[in-house]
Fold Clavaminate synthase-like protein.
Amino acid sequence: MPVTAYPEFPTNIPTHPLLVIDYELVKNGDEKEKNVLWKAATTLGFWYLKNHGAEEFVEDMFDMGAETMDLPMEEKMKFEQGDGGSSFGYKYAGANAVDASGEPDKIEFINIAKDDALSWPEQARRSYPSTVNNRMDSTIVPFVKKSVEINDMILNVFNTKLGLPEGTLNKLHSTEEYSASEARTIKASKNLPIGRQALGAHTDFGSLSFLHNRLGGLQVLPPGVDEWQYVKPLPGHAICNVGDALALLSGGILHSNIHRVYPPPGAQAGFERWSQVFFTRPGNSVALRPLSDHSPAIAEAVSKLTEEQRNVLGPGVTAVDWFNRRIKNQRVKNRTGPETWLASRGTEQGRV
């Protein structure tokens, strides 16, 4: 469905403004633009990214997603991600809880591992529906490579700003090591009840998210604010944000902000909501603790944290264990009570 066919985001709905970053300027070394990116990443942790060059790939990914979601449920369930803590594959609506009450989520999606896309036609992590395999060469591999390129550039900027030895963050996110990095195409049903969460409040598990929305629905809870606010999708602009892994590695300098997905506002609520995202996550073996020994700035930041915040930031678990714990304890079939939901939480527990 062409973007122009959707109703506009309502003008009477309050939204939270995001800083706009020009990727081409960052790529070309513009220091002023890098400073704006740094400001965004260390305050709200969200920003718009324009001139990223991924629009064509994103539209093709939406087409792949529609083809996949149109498959019979019996066929999709052959590729369901399961309850063991892995997220690659298909997830049906209602598989995950959105809060401590155990309310089921309202979205379905297909996750494609970065490792499978980059090793294609060899299988690295798992198999996928024919609708995915048929578009690996033309659609998925180009989108994944472009997303990796963009997020690697952003990591390089953060590496310099944090005063880390050259290449540190990029090495921790090397494509040579298996990771939980993945491309996700998401479908949320139309006309969801008002006030019902499609996706519960959370911080992202990994390092960077590169998101493309066709409709509103994303909401953020800014630091020090008690009221959720919509983020307005802008044509040609991705919405990017910092995840838990970078918050942990940076000693809380980079901010992983809590967010959720509600039904689109106004007339947009009458349409299926599609999103496309690429999640960059550290290599599976990377220990998630502040890189204080490599950066005086990180060491100083950690020294100013409360004991509770330091406990959140210093688990020292590997990236794969951090990720698997959060995925596994979100699954409704693994639920034993509110404690299961709490066990799926990340840095939002300490609001670092």
User: Anything to note?
Assistant: Residues 180 and 288 are 14 Å apart (CA to CA).
